[in-house]
Write a structure and sequence with these properties.
eight-stranded mixed β-sheet; Ribosomal Protein S5, domain 2; 4 domains; Heat Shock Protein 90; elongated; binds adenosine-5'-diphosphate; 38% helix; alpha+beta; Rossmann fold; six-stranded mixed β-sheet; 636 residues
């Protein structure tokens, strides 16, 4: 018998398998079961039109046999089998494995991930075996053949005795090593767990003889003797066969969905919502998605990995397919089962797969409309959901240059001055006062701190509602939106805030002009921290406030400068110290300016410090500030 050489690519792949240090070697079982299942499918479909097949639909099965002594694991199917030529062709060549192409292009990269994510079909058997034999008899053939290989050196094919149609793959499991306990692949519990994990939804039964111990009933008079056990062997079906997502919706209870979710996606709480859809047409797939009630502990860290499980005809091909979810919906858990994807598709090919893109697109729409529905018919649940994941949605608005803002803007909620409750942008605009053409917002650490901002008073006085932005990302998202429903957003601390009427405005302008020297003197004492000083008509009771000119607010300055790497490149908001024109301090400043320039400088610094504190930032020079206050108190 001649030993044949593997085709060169196959040999490389085989080497990779044999020497694999990959930690999830267990996926070999999934691969072999999938092959067996495909073979069963082929013969099953043939049996529908060809009586010669002679196998009843229910008799198609996959058997697993374990033999600890012989160290063998057999995967047996009564599917279509392979002829001598097919054994040679299919197992001697690596046909079309996308993962292999990927590997070649990225030779220097770690192969570890590639193996785990996609499987490399039949060859993965060599990760756990030092010899593999495949005995097969093709349907309609009069002879059976045995393919055998102990690795990269080559393989042999010889006739063998196998009366039934189908295939027996025998793995000679490697000896246990220090690093790897191969013995586990001979353990019935482990194998049964692996079938459940990866192949539960294969539509043919996967059966295995299971041996358990049963206590032997004691004879009379023997009550005190040590208990005795006997082995009981039964044939068990290891897989449940029908995937939950393939069942009709009305056959599934809420509890079944919840249990499935908790078990599969490791949550202790029921999901907030379930989306179960089946789509046929351009892309044929079923999807079962869950919106969790709470964020996983690592959700807002970079360890978190988004993605849906991806199945191809009931076989898990990828545990976290990130391409199926946009970042802003990364909280969604679930799975997609598609008829159109090949089992051995590589990540690289997957990214370019138009089917997958199509699926991702329709799923995105479904998720969005489910969230909108939840907001509408279960506001409390939505608000809880938003507390957990709202930040992600706001990042979504801001990221990618605002590309997704239209998708996301109606899902946002903010607290506001109207009630201490969440309001959506739509609700805000709908209840805007007549004549109001701007959406007002204010930023701060908490609602309470925002309410203390002097600028809020005047806006509220006019009867306008203010959105309270308390998270770092908020103002960036709002700026990205720019407007909503044709209404512009404005920060109440922006110098463009304009609540005064024309007459008042004119009067103020004159006053500001007249006091130019006073303001210049004040600015000089305060220094570069501010761009200018002026009177304002928008403050109610407070003497001073800080507003910002240009695009960057004081809040944004804080956020940007706290980001990693910001130390060398500090952002500076352009600040204006505004003085309440109607406050007694306005007049006082004018008198002091005329009498005592030095004193004016001190007043200016004190007022600036006060404005800083009330805006939620720190006093630039606390020691100097404390001295000035003491001096003032002593002289009073
Ligand atoms: P893939 O399954 O992606 O084609 P594999 O390397 O797993 O790649 O298998 C190669 C081929 O060998 C299969 O396409 C199939 O034609 C054949 N094959 C493998 N296992 C079996 C089996 N149990 N019965 C019949 N044919 C099989």
């Amino acid at each position: 018998m001649r030993t044949k050489q593997f085709k060169s690519e196959s040999k490389k792949l085989m080497d990779m398998m044999i020497n694999s240090i990959y930690t999830h070697k267990e996926i070999f079982l999934r691969e072999l079961i999938s092959n067996a299942s495909d073979a069963l499918d082929k013969l099953y479909f043939r049996s529908l039109t060809d009586n010669a097949v002679g196998i009843a639909p229910d008799d198609f099965e996959i058997r697993i046999e374990l033999d600890k002594e012989a160290r063998t694991l057999k995967i047996i199917d009564n599917g279509c089998g392979m002829t001598e030529d097919e054994l040679d062709q299919n197992l001697g060549t690596i046909a079309k494995s996308g993962s292999f192409t990927f590997k070649q292009e990225n030779e220097k990269q770690d192969n570890v991930d590639i193996i785990g994510q996609f499987g490399v079909g039949f060859y993965s058997a060599f990760m756990v075996s030092d010899k593999v034999t495949v005995e097969s008899r093709a349907f309609g053939a009069d002879e059976a053949f045995c393919w055998e290989s102990s690795g990269a050196s080559g393989y042999t094919i010889s006739p063998c005795d196998k009366p039934e149609v189908g295939t027996v793959v025998t793995l000679h499991i490697k000896e246990k090593t220090e690093d790897e306990n191969y013995d586990e692949y001979l353990d019935q519990y482990r194998i049964s767990a692996l079938v459940k994990k990866y192949s539960d939804y294969i539509r043919h039964p996967i059966r295995m003889e299971f041996t358990t111990k049963e206590p032997v009933e004691k004879k009379e008079g023997d009550e005190n003797a040590a208990p005795e056990y006997r082995d009981v062997t039964e044939l068990r079906t290891l897989n449940s066969m029908i995937p939950l997502w393939k069942k009709a919706k009305n056959e599934i209870t809420e509890e079944e969905y919840a249990n499935f979710y908790k078990e599969k996606f490791y949550d202790y709480e029921n999901p907030a919502r379930v989306i179960h859809t089946k789509t046929e047409g351009q892309a044929t797939y079923s999807a079962l998605l869950f919106l969790p009630k709470h964020a996983p502990f690592d959700y807002y860290t970079k360890e978190f990995e988004k993605g849906l499980q991806l199945y191809s005809k009931g076989v898990l091909i990828m545990d976290k397919c990130g391409d199926l979810l946009p970042d802003y919906f990364s909280f969604v858990k679930g799975l997609v089962d598609s008829e159109d994807l090949s089992l051995n598709i590589s990540r690289e090919m997957l990214q370019h797969d138009s089917q997958l893109k199509l699926i991702a697109k329709t799923l995105e729409k479904k998720i969005k409309s489910e969230l909108e529905k939840m907001m509408k018919d279960d506001r409390e649940a939505y608000e809880n959901f938003f507390k957990a994941f709202g930040m992600q949605l706001k990042f979504g608005v801001y990221n990618d240059y605002g590309m997704h803002k239209d998708t996301l803007q109606d899902l946002l909620l903010f607290h506001s001055s109207a009630e201490k409750k969440y309001v959506s942008l739509k609700e805000y605009v709908e209840r805007m006062k007549e004549g109001q053409d701007t959406i007002y917002y204010a930023c701060g650490e908490t609602d309470e701190k925002i309410e203390m901002l002097p600028q809020c008073d005047a806006v509220k006085d006019k009867g306008f509602e203010i959105l309270y932005l308390t998270e770092n990302v908020d103002e960036f998202a709002i700026k990205m939106l720019g407007e909503y429903g044709g209404k512009k957003f404005i920060n109440v601390c922006d110098d463009k805030l304009d609540l005064t009427d024309e007459e008042e405005k004119k009067a103020l302008e004159e006053k500001n002009k007249a006091c130019k020297d006073l303001f210049d003197a004040m600015k000089e004492s305060i220094g570069d921290q501010i761009g200018s000083v002026r009177f304002t008509g928008t403050l109610k009771n407070h003497p001073v406030c800080i507003t910002s000119e240009g695009g960057i607010s004081l809040e944004m300055e804080k956020v940007l400068n706290s980001m990693p790497g910001a130390a060398e490149n500090k952002v500076k908001a352009q600040l204006v110290l505004e003085i309440n024109a109607n406050h007694p301090i306005a007049e006082k400043l004018q008198t002091v300016f005329e009498k005592d320039r030095e004193q004016l400088g001190k007043y200016a610094k004190l007022l600036y410090a006060e404005a800083c504190l009330i805006s939620g930032t720190t006093v630039p020079d606390p020691a100097e500030h404390s001295e000035l206050v003491c001096e003032l108190l002593t002289n009073a």
